[in-house]
Amino acid sequence: MKKILFILTLLFLGACSNETAQDSSLNTEEAQNGQTSEIHDDDEKNKDSILELKVEDFNTSTINFAMMMFREYLESLKQSASLSKKIKDYHINNIEVIEQRADGFKFSVNFDLKPFDWDQYIVAGNGVMDEESKWIKRKILFVDVEKEHLDDAVIYRIVSLGTGP
């Protein structure tokens, strides 16, 4: 039985595969069975990661796992206490795994997001701002995920998000 424990820790300051996923409707149901999510307060943050997942049974493709991780990250932004980071909605347009290593993987993601408060949201990096619809479209991030083996599980951590590889 799959058991996935999500431990969210938000930190905003801080060989190859060409797998690609189009559209956020990608089926990740098999990877989400039995998942639980938890958001930690600022004093509980893990300073080394943005998002941390403990996986006891990994039975999905890397591209589906990347999609699931990035969705969880965007969902956590909906809960942010900071109006400069909080979002109302998002749409993942495309994810591509650009590197696989024994200790993790890297992927790029193209997505749109709708800030919770258009006037307070801090836009960094890239994307096209549509003031009429209040969406920031075609944002691109490169995400680095590290993997650590434990006795009974594997920990996956998003250790960096940025506009360049």
Characterization of this structure:
This protein has 2 helices and 9 strands; from the N terminus they run E-E-H-E-E-H-E-E-E-E-E. With 165 residues, it is mainly β. It has one domain. Strands 1, 2, 3, 4, 5, 6, 7, 8 and 9 form a 9-stranded mixed β-sheet that branches. A hairpin with a 4-residue loop joins strand 7 (128-130) and strand 8. The longest helix has 17 residues, at 62-78. The chain is elongated and about 50 Å long.
Largest sheet: 9 strands, mixed
What's the alpha carbon Rg, rounded to whole Å?
Answer: 15 Å
Question: What global shape is seen?
Answer: elongated
- Between the first and last Cα atoms, what is the distance in angstroms? 35 Å
Overall average residue pLDDT: 75
Quaternary state of this entry equals single chain
Uncertain parts: 1-18, 24-47
